[in-house]
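thought: fold this chain, then report.
action: predict
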Amino acid sequence: MAVKKANQTFEILKPYISSVISSYAEVLFIESKKVGLLLLIASFINPNVALSGLLGVLFALFFAALIRMDPDYLESGFYIYNPLLVGMSIGFLFKLTFMSLFLIAVASVLTFLITIILHTLFSIYLIPILSFPFAIVSSIVYLSTLNYSNLFVETLYSHSFLLNSGLNIPVWCEAYFKSLGTILFMPNIWAGIFIFLLIVLHSRIMAIMTIAGFYFGVFVHSQLSGSYIQSLLNPYAFNYILVAVALGSIFLIPGIRSYLLALLGVSISVLLVDATAIFWTLYKIPVFTLPFNITVISFLFVLRLVRFREFAYVIKKTPENSLSYFLLSLFRFKSNEKSIFLPFSGKWSVYQAFDDVWTHQGKWKYAYDFVIRDKDGKTYKNEGLRLDDYYAFKKPVLSPVSGYVVEAADDFPDQPIGEVDNINNWGNYLILSTPSGVYVEISHLAKDSLKVKKGDFVEAGQIIGLCGNSGYSPEPHIHIQVQENMYLGSKTIPFNFVAYLKKDEVCFYQRPLKGDEISSFAADKSLDTRFSFVLESRCSYEVFKDEKKIDEFTLRVAMDRFSGRFFFEDPEKNKLFFAKEYGIFYFYDYTGKDRSYLKKFFMAIPRIALIGKERVKWEDFLTPRIVYEGFKKDFLMFLASICSKPFLYKGVWEKNGDDIKGTINIGNRQISVLTVIDKTHGFDTIKVENLIIRRKK
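observation:
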């Protein structure tokens, strides 16, 4: 009974304990309880600061419990790291006494309130609040204490013991480590070295940005001030580090543009540090992280407004992971473009493509016209004088997206061959709007052929009307465009098609060329069934290397309870996320350790067109994070942030839908991979070079 009660108590306290630990790591933009625990322990280099910070967290959590705030919101430490910093800032100035304890309690609750308010306001623009609440409240506290002479007389705290490290290292190196330590109110070389090692182990890109940010900021400041030593010893130089890390690796995807913006941000923060220091010194207030917050929030607000491509809309645990996810989304799914499905079934030909010689010009240049041709290349039978002679006439038109019908018309007549309607150029049309804000117009439909009406919701692939010859149309065809808004004839924007078949090749997220014959495809029913995975089902595999068994493991099919995403999970809790839709099965994300057999699945078959026809081929992309491990992976991921070129994967169906043979092209090297589909369900065999993962019989 006592054990059961203890377990229940632990479950209640678990999110609060997790919040305390995670808040320390959040200060460094790290999502790791291990790192948080190590930083908590390391903070006791300065016991007064450590206890004050811990008390700041506990007071904030007590207030959260008092107002019955859902503990799940607190577990990540996001709402708590600002009260932690405020507690530390007070502990850095005053000894722990009843008076300073009261000050910590009041300040931490105020910080918690401001954190929630600012987060609510900033989240409208998807902008992080960073440590802005801490900068505001700490300045308020320090300013208010100027009137509390009793507090200064009795509790002023000296921490000069931190400055003597006993290490004899160059001043340029010592200054860097002290600045790192100052982020957690520990201006000590040993603290800085410890924090640096934690950052290196977590992310090599982050570690590089701390170095680049600090020394570039010092260089800029020294050029302006004329004193290199003075610039090195600036107590607020840690702002340069925070700006570089935030812009160069966390909130922007690591890359050339992000690195340049990070250095520009560091330059701006140099001015803000000096300007703020002069003004704040009048009131004896430290600068804290105000320059960092102003710089980064300003950058992120503007970059979000202009839809900066490298804005990190999805932030993973490390910058390397964020970069890998971004590159996979960019190259595999063209995340920077609008994507729609084909508006037809069967084989059609591109009559006009983008910026073509006839009507696809000016603001309407991003559009496609499709017709049906016979083996002789003609679009009609007989003499082609009647509408019924044209193969495309009255053929079903399918919805290219899932969304709502926002505009529609189908009362215009189909024009006889040789005549066009110059007044109602678009003829009968349909405009669809998706929840993500994509507007698609389909024009020249047949009279009275619409199967849907304004306000209806349609699924992608649903029949919405018939191909016609209404409006300015020389012959029956499907005209399709993606446009800026819901109004007829709006300016068009570039787009691609999610998937189509061109001869014996499946093209993913591409644009066909003029004259190309392309067709949609449906999944083979047998393959579709074999790739329908049931929740909580399990499958065991044996691992062989050079024909010798080296391991075995079991995969479990699970679902993320928050996002509803499906994934395979191995015994070490590594996760390989997958999806199946519109005749395609694909892996799209991996979370977990470097060494996992799940990565071999990703390598062998990142995406499958569930057609199963022999000799059908396709291409895909992989990043170094999926292919490699350890130092090589880290080095190549850093190079990927500069050149942004993933590895090309080529796959082809063999043996009538049972085997998929592939290669991963890495420079002049090729990695051979093979996937054997199980006769009943899922994967039978995965082979990556000399490593074989085989289903246990």
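thought: worth noting. The two ends are 44 Å apart (CA to CA).
final: tokens above.
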